[in-house]
Amino acid sequence: MTDGRRYLDPKVLAKITRLDVRARLVVEGFITGLHKSPYHGFAVEFATHREYVPGDEIKHIDWKVWARQDRFYIKEYEEETNLKCTIILDCSKSMDYGSNDDPVHHGMGKFEYAATAAACLAFLLQHQQDAVGLVAFDNDIRKNLPASSHPSHLKLILHELEQIKPDKRSDIGDVFHRLAEQTRKRGMIVLVSDLFVDLDVLADAMRHFRHRRHEVVVLHTLHDHELTFPFQDNTMFRGLEVESEVLAEPRALRKSYLEVLENFTRRVRKLCADLGIDYVPMSTKDPLDAALAGYLAFRQRTMRKTRR
Q: Which regions of 181-264 does DSSP assign to beta strands (E)?
């Protein structure tokens, strides 16, 4: 590959230490690889015609109307409100699985992958001249940057993403309800998380966002090991958010583990479907442009609905 898309391989991205460079390469490579851009920023939309008066700019004359009626009419437009998106990033301890501090794992860890996906979306949203904000949470709100479209705001988001270190247990109940109350203006909420939470609590929190008429996207981020359970030899499994450890023979557990995982993801999918939430599964082994594709597909559907 001769364009930026060669950087979309997570193994290559893992070698790039600067998050802003990595995210920019993903976004630029993704855009370069498109034959025609499927997304457009909200700008202006045609509203009505009015008769031309001296002083009006000629560029706004509708020449097709003039050809039919032999009279000059001006196209009037109304500005649309730019999209306001808040990216909610899980920085609880379970997101630290597969981090670079662990010599057993290779490539990008779960949080590094999730943070890069968040950075890519922030780049893309600002490219569309939309406003983007960042919330990082575990059992409390650790970072809260309100949405803005100013170029310096993107730099601040990327800086904060670089500084976040996953820690503590996740507890979304109170956190998400507070965020729903604080995010008053209708917009888009993008949750990037492994969703290792009580699903009933998650459902209640998501209903609160939907009650506020926010569009919600869930980027369900899991490590490839969590999805495939590739372990062979006797392994000591340690909890990241609970103090527990189990020495087990993985091959005896694999079938049961994958069944539990499948049931879990099925429940998450159904929860999202029931609430009208777009669900985008992400694995650390997959190219990050998959997250952008999922977002863009959702954005297209949203735009079509709002224009009906």
A: 188-193, 215-222, 235-238, 245-248
